[in-house]
Amino acid sequence: MVISLGIEGYGYLLSVGIIDDNKVLINKSKYFESPDYQDYYPYFIATHHRKNVLPLIRQCLTESNLQYQDIDIICFSNAVVMRMLAQMWNKPIVVVNHAYAHIKASEFYSKVENCVVVYLCGKFSQIMVKKDDKYKIIGSSLDISIEEAYLKMSKYLKFYDKEEYLGATIEELSKKGTDLILLPYMINGFYFYLSGTLCSLQNLINNASIKIEDICLSFQEAVLSIIVEITEKAMLDAQANQILIIGQISENKRLQDMMTSMAKDNCSVVFEFNKNYSIDSGVMIALSGLQQYKKYGPTKWSESGIVEK
């Protein structure tokens, strides 16, 4: 039995999760709220995370009836404070790749085997296939990611999904849309571009005669159709029979419906979706770190520093 503590501090989210082998003991999150509810401010986010990470860890330990002595490993993706904590507690550390943690956690809890991974996180919109326990990127956005497109769209319309997943307001308004406006987008094999789509959207938003609901409907149908089309190509090319969507956009009900419909039309392909582990969380770091620890052991201190980019 190995108890793993995972800390996630990616973007505005701070999350701590503790697992006992494969059993989730607790997962707590705290969000940074930007002053104008739109942009990221690295300095303020860092200050928020530094201020809240130790109280959040303390809260998780208390609510799961654990002491710090009970923790066997500390897992994170390159966070200085966690190196300090590991030294104070004299615990081994495991440095986890953020994207890999997303995939492994979703894969583990969804029980998928032969799947196409649709990775829609932050600045990345990538289509991957698994081969020899490794993931090969076979397609992606070449300019603006799907999540960035939703962020830009929300900013254009002055929306902020404070409590919901990214794009929740756009999805709700799109249900009330009645007039679908065709928007330009470009697909080249497994790769695509969205800059032209967003430029066209700006022109629509500036047109007072077009309803916001119709703009949201047109935007959502365009960007989600791209992902579904490329996923279908990848699935047929890789002869996969499952689809795994990762990221906040995976909570979009319209995307789930489109993927499910496409899957049924292609040899009864199974669509897998797991809300709890497809988004950022401390649990996904703890689980991925635990699997890595069992296979390769702890990360060397000399290999766990911050890498400047």
UniProtKB/TrEMBL annotation:
Pfam families: TsaD (PF00814). Signal peptide: none annotated. Its EC number is 2.3.1.234. The keyword Metal-binding applies. Keywords: Acyltransferase, Metal-binding, Transferase, tRNA processing. SUPFAM superfamilies: Actin-like ATPase domain. Transmembrane segments: none annotated. It comes from the Eukaryota. GO terms for cellular component: cytoplasm; EKC/KEOPS complex. Gene3D superfamilies: 3.30.420.40. It catalyses: L-threonylcarbamoyladenylate + adenosine(37) in tRNA = N(6)-L-threonylcarbamoyladenosine(37) in tRNA + AMP + H(+). The keyword Transferase applies. Residues 42-286 form the Gcp-like domain. GO terms for molecular function: metal ion binding; tRNA N(6)-L-threonylcarbamoyladenine synthase activity. One of its GO terms (biological process) is tRNA processing. This is N(6)-L-threonylcarbamoyladenine synthase. It comes from Intoshia linei.
